[in-house]
Amino acid sequence: MIGRVGRRLRRLQGVPPLALSLLLLQAVLAAGCGRMPRIIVLEDPLTAEEHLELGVAYERSAEYDLAIREYERALRKDGESFQARVNLGNVRLAKQEYGKAREEYREALAIRPGDPEATNNLAWAAILSGEEREEAAAGMEAVVSREENRTATLLDTLGVLRMRMGQPAAAKEAFGEAEQRCLEAGVSRCPNGILREIRAHRAELCGQIPPSGPPPLVK
User: Fold this and answer.
1) Domain edges within the chain
2) Predicted TM-score (pTM) above 0.70
3) What separation in angstroms does the CA of 133 have from each of 141, 166, 169, 192?
């Protein structure tokens, strides 16, 4: 897949479609042809999946504007691409464009209602912006009500949300279960980074340290 993307990019690199059309026009006129040439505008040859892959590469390099461009192109190819919607929301969140991030997560949830990934990340948009937390809490409560979704990451997000909403007892309960499930899952399924995040949030709840860093988005 990557090889095909690379070949197509090399074929188009540095030659925008409009420039190709102008070169064609100049060549015909130079040949003395009296007829108006047919202008050919090249279509985007990449698939939605290929634009998605490029967007992920740009996002990992923190080139957010380029990532946004590729995710939007993916959505023009496939308006029902759930992952493009979520990824676009993640980039908007990284740029602190909370309203736009929420819009993308809601669009993703319209495609997959109740999806844990989109619901988790929508909750983080609410946590970081301080807006629409009640809606986010209702979504998270619905998600973790299903046993298969009671993962360390989702429970930790719920704990942070409850903490920000001034519900310390409920937050403590969520963090406690999140840590327990992480320890039971083992490092292979719950890496040390996630366990550190949970414990940092618990410490924050106890007032031991200032608010922690970036959110554990689900990707």
Assistant:
1) 150-214
2) yes
3) 12, 11, 17, 28
